[in-house]
Amino acid sequence: MKKIAMLCLALLLGAGVSLAAKPAAQKKTVTTVFTTDIDCEHCVNKIMNNVPSLGKGIKDVQVDLQKKEVTVVYDASKNSDENIVKGFASLKVQAEPKKTETDGK
Q1: Which domains does the chain have, with CATH numbers?
Q2: Which residue of 1, 10, 48, 100 has the smallest Cβ count within 10 Å?
Q3: 30-86 tens-digit pLDDT
Q4: Max avg pLDDT among 13-17, 32-36, 99-103
Q5: Predicted TM-score (pTM) of this structure
Q6: Buried (b) or exposed (e) across 44-71, using 16+ Cβ within 10 A?
Q7: CA 85 → CA 4, 29, 51, distances in Å?
């Protein structure tokens, strides 16, 4: 009888824990193209070597020197365009968002 009671108690605790677990927040991946003032390969390397300076949640960074654009893919729950602009400023790079696309990944 004790074994059955313990088994029932364990099942109830397990069910309670699984119901109490919060569903994982949906990640919203955002791609933003920033126009910048970069003009040389040194600037490109400065950005690529300091991606963590742009903030949390950065998934991908691509730099187009000829267009003077930097494309950043990031998790919108961890970062924003404004914070990324501040990250560029910390690298002494002027940047502003050009266009925003939402990707529901």
Answers
A1: 29-103 (3.30.70.100)
A2: 1
A3: 999 999 999 999 999 999 999 999 999 999 999 999 999 999 999 999 999 999 999
A4: 32-36
A5: 0.68
A6: bebbeeeeebbbebbeebebeeeeebbb
A7: 61, 17, 12
β-strands 58-64, 95-103: how paired?
A: unpaired
| Nearest to 69, CA basis, from 39, 104, 49 | 39
* 71-76 long-range Cβ contacts below 8 angstroms, 24+ apart: 71/31, 71/32, 71/33, 71/34, 72/31, 72/32, 72/34, 73/29, 73/30, 73/31, 73/103, 74/29, 74/30, 74/32, 75/27, 75/28, 75/29, 75/30, 76/28, 76/29, 76/30
- Residue-level pLDDT at 51: 94
Structure tokens of 14? 């397990």
Tokens standing for 89?
């400023």
Residue 99: pLDDT above 90?
no
